[in-house]
Amino acid sequence: MRELDEATRPRAASGVPLRPDQQTAGRHLRAIHDNFRSELAAVLGAVEAVRQGAATPGDVRDAVHQLTWRQHREDIGSFCGQLCRFVTMHHTIEDQAMFPTVAALPGFAPVVERLMDEHHVVHERLVRVDEVLVRMQTDEAAFDDLAAAVGALSEVLLSHFLYEEEEMGEAMGLAGLLV
């Protein structure tokens, strides 16, 4: 599985002062990411409940299905189906509606390319978490794998969100983009 190398991330944002109207898109992007952060904290809490013996792996999967970004269970049968669907929608919007405009700004093309690559790394982590959750339905001994997979997802997703907010807020404001 690929890792994120934070030290090699290109940087383009220069701290240009933005007018209040130019700050709106960056604040909105951060609010979307804050929702993801909250949901991720709920998943981490559920995993810790299993570790402490207060919940079963099935309870974790059920809790994940109840998160605010879930779709109807009848429509999507797995954790990845639910979370991946929303994350994929979020990344598709960025890839198609935001990144092409931002890439045209001086210096931002390498940042956009890196963010798009990181979308794939995030997806790999989502798939891994779901694989382990499915396996745990019949093999509770896989709990250590679940804790590791959720920890890896959390690390990558939180790092990605921060990088994206740092680089895209200014660019979105300068380009007049809304989220």
Q: In whole angstroms, how far apart are the ends?
A: 30 Å
Look at the helices and sheets and give the structural class: mainly alpha
Task: Work out the helicity level.
Answer: over 70%
Radius of gyration: 18 Å
Order of helices and strands: HHHHH
Tell me, what's the shape? elongated
In the CATH hierarchy, what is the architecture at level 2?
Answer: Up-down Bundle
> Which fold name is given in CATH as the topology?
Four Helix Bundle (Hemerythrin (Met), subunit A)
Contiguous uncertain segments of 5+ residues: 69-78
In percent terms, what proportion of residues is strand? Answer: under 5%
What is the helix tally? Answer: 5
Q: How many domains would you count in the coordinates?
A: 1
Give the overall pLDDT as a whole number.
84
Please characterize this protein's 3D structure.
- The structure is a single chain.
- By secondary structure, the chain is an all-alpha fold.
- The chain has one domain (21-175): Up-down Bundle (Four Helix Bundle (Hemerythrin (Met), subunit A)), CATH 1.20.120.520.
- Helix content is 71%, strand content 0%.
- It is built from 5 helices and no strands.
- The chain has helices at 20-51, 57-65, 79-103, 109-136, 143-175.
- α1 packs antiparallel against α2, α1 (20-51) runs antiparallel to α5 (143-175) and α4 (109-136) runs antiparallel to α5 (143-175).
- The two termini are 30 Å apart.
